Amino acid sequence: MKTKTDLCSLSAAELLGLYSRKRLSPVEVTKAVLERIEQLNPVLNAFCLVDSAAALKAAKESEKRWLRKEPKGLLDGVPTSIKDLLVTKGWPTLRGSRTVDPKGPWNDDAPAVARLREHGAVILGKTTTPEFGWKGVTDSPLTGITRNPWNPKMTPGGSSGGAAAAAASGMGPLAIGTDGGGSIRIPCGFTGLFGLKPSFGRVPAWPLSPMGTVAHVGPMTRTVEDAALMLNVISMPDTRDWHGLPYDARDYRVGLNDGVKGLRIAFSEDLGYAKVDPEVLRIVKAAVRTFAALGARVEAKDPGFEDCGPMFSAHWFPGAAMIVRNTHPSKRRLLDPGLLETAKLGEKVSTSEYMAAITKRGALGVHMNAFHEKYDLLVTPTLPLAAFKAGQEMASILKEKRWTDWTPFTYPFNLTQQPAASVPCGFTKKGLPVGLQIVGPRYNDALVLRAARAFESAHPFRMPDVSRLAG
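RESULT FIELD:
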């Protein structure tokens, strides 16, 4: 019989295999995960809502289906968390804000949540986010500070920081995150998880993010196979997303183990302009050599575009301004001061400046389309630094003014809407994870997953020892 610690460390694929052979029950697993949440959430603050009764009810229903050999779908009985930016029927979606009325009504599931339910996932609750997902770390006036399971003094990143802290610490093997400028890849880089920002429109989203067409929904998992499995489910169509891509019925697990032999991979250590911590860069360079050892043709090559920071800010900051404008004046004093500051910057972006940024964004997308005619993949550091102190927006060592200053590798590929993943690739001397970013041509999510799986096969991912946190 598996111990509860073992149950919390199993992947979704492993759980499903054990369910099918009647060697394990979804009820046992859900109880173990809920116990883990009870132990660790007071330390990490990953969940802002946990519905134990609903989770156990769903697990018992799943158990009955497995005993009849009639699983409901691809994720029947797998504990899963939902970032608190995605609406969830019956639960308040407060978005980390004291300005949202908990009374609702809450009558809808976002598309990804609906698909997870349809496939039998056991939904545990909602994970923390900075207010309206506005920054790259996770703390908010409503829920306080979320912490990194490798070192609770450090941030897990954001804005999907609660999702990352939950998955990395065994509080459910699957988590749904969102990524408008790196919000899946940043916390995965800081916590040693795998996370995929799919091609824009691959995973239907509704309601549309206030940040518009830079925002994606995707999986955050402890293995690449689990992310592929999860993508099969959440990429199913939903008519509420008019940006949604035509449905692709492929199974993302097929071809996952085909390797990288013969692929043309460009490696850019700094995109031509970013500052990177020397220790992080050394770890990433060593990781990139893995692809050459696996038979890929790796070449040092910058993608050849200028710093995208101003272009991204012209898209992101007006979104923050819209959030504040849509907040009743009597409640604006309740908002995160940093969000208010960002909104003021957004108010200063003129219509002509915004339209110019849209034009530049289109040119950037065309540039990357051409780049991928020569290179199958681009790899970079996910982040230029390891996790820093929890509760602060900036790391300070890079003399940043806003969170966008310390995440130069992620948001360019929100602008281009390309699939991009973060793969854990090593640890600093202080024991903090480092991430490697894999970027693919638009719509070729399967190739990104395949390359990530090849790396994982050579360097299996390691999760933190959380026993010290519970003690």
